[in-house]
Amino acid sequence: MKHISLFNQESPMEELPQTASMLGLGKLFVKRDDMLTPEFGGCKVRNLNRQFTHALENGADTLLMAARVGSNAVAAASLFAKKYGLRVSAILKPQVVSYTCRFNLEIIAAAGTEIIPVPAGTLLHSKSPTVTREMTRLTSEGRRPQFVGFGGGDIQAALAQASAVKEMWMQIKSNGIEELEKIYVAGASFSTAAGMAAGLSLLGIKSKLVIVGLAHEDAPDDHFFNKANEAAKLANVEWGNTTDHNMPIDAPQFHCAFKEAFGEITEPLQIESLDEVKALQLDPVYTRKAFSYMMQDAGQHAGKNCLFWHTGNSRPWPEYLIRPELEATLSALLI
Q1: Which of 55, 172, 210, 245 is least surrounded, with the fewest CB atoms within 10 Å of its CB?
Q2: What angle do CA 124, 102, 112 make, to 5 degrees?
Q3: Domain residue spans in the chain?
């Protein structure tokens, strides 16, 4: 089967010279995954290339997804699934209300995704009662569902991000840079970060991965390292390497931004007056928090080169969708 391709080019690599100067860095780069497609951007779009392909290879016609109600993953899947003959059913938990959350929920609803609301404490892993029930229901309706891990986080997502690291590193080297001190990324399910850690390990890149955690207080645990190691082994084979991968996964630096959870931070950033920072269109729920922490942390690395990975969506409302009025049952998920 031909590999699904939601985008046909690399995401841009941009340099922020004014920001680097104000932070005391040598160079500061931004990997603009937010610009992957005109309709929707971010790391979740990159992941869908593999998740759609994997689903179609398995004969699926429906993606069963589980996430919080403002999920970038479900919003992106809702936009692109029909193009490949796929439907999306989404089990959605409540989320703190924000512009980003409402924007994504409106996309999910407007695109015709089946929404299954559940209480906040509902377990939504692959063998949980709720997921098992919905898989059974969809099958009984004659559909062929495939489950995607919570928040779009599964091994396919991790593999997509490992390949993204290879893309990023080629762009960095083409800029004449041989070393990055740190790479900053927002993290919720940690599948994106696990894939990036795998890619860094495979390529022997010594940069420290910095995860700004948004969903919980705990730093990456054994589950993170197990997923990163699995991704590294699988990517090693996919990349055509003939020797086993034995490089350890480097422990990432972790900063907890859980006190804001999925709420917004709206206070002005110290350097947001710069046009090059305004142009990033950082969202207040995800990437703004990661960028804010990078500003605090980067001051320890005077003269060094760093990278901020823009994993969010900066695209406006898709013109071909009619923006809906949310039903009461959906509005109730915005807490």
Answers
A1: 245
A2: 70
A3: 13-42+154-310, 43-153
Q: Report in angstroms the alpha-carbon separations of 241 from 113, 140, 159, 197, 238.
A: 40, 43, 15, 18, 8
Give the integer Cα–Cα distance in Å for 310 and 288: 9
Q: CATH topology of 13-42+154-310 equal to that of 43-153?
A: yes
Total number of residues shown for the chain: 335
Instruction: Classify domain 13-42+154-310 by CATH architecture.
Output: 3-Layer(aba) Sandwich (3.40)
Confirm if 150 and 66 have CB atoms less than 8 A apart: yes
Within 13 A of 331's CA, how many CA atoms are on the CB side?
A: 5
- Tell whether domain 43-153 is in CATH 3.40.50.1100: yes
Pair 148, 65: CB distance under 8 Å: yes
Closest by Cα among 7, 4, 6, 10 to 166:
10
Q: Tell me the pLDDT of the chain (335 aa) as tens digits.
A: 557 789 888 999 999 999 999 999 999 999 999 999 999 999 999 999 999 999 999 999 999 999 999 999 999 999 999 999 999 999 999 998 888 999 999 999 999 999 999 999 999 999 999 999 999 999 999 999 999 999 998 999 999 999 999 999 999 999 999 999 999 999 877 899 999 999 999 999 999 999 998 766 667 789 999 999 999 999 999 999 878 877 889 999 998 875 555 666 666 666 667 889 989 999 888 898 899 899 989 888 999 999 999 999 999 999 999 998 888 878 888 88
Taking a C-beta distance cutoff of 8 angstroms, is the pair 49, 33 a contact? no
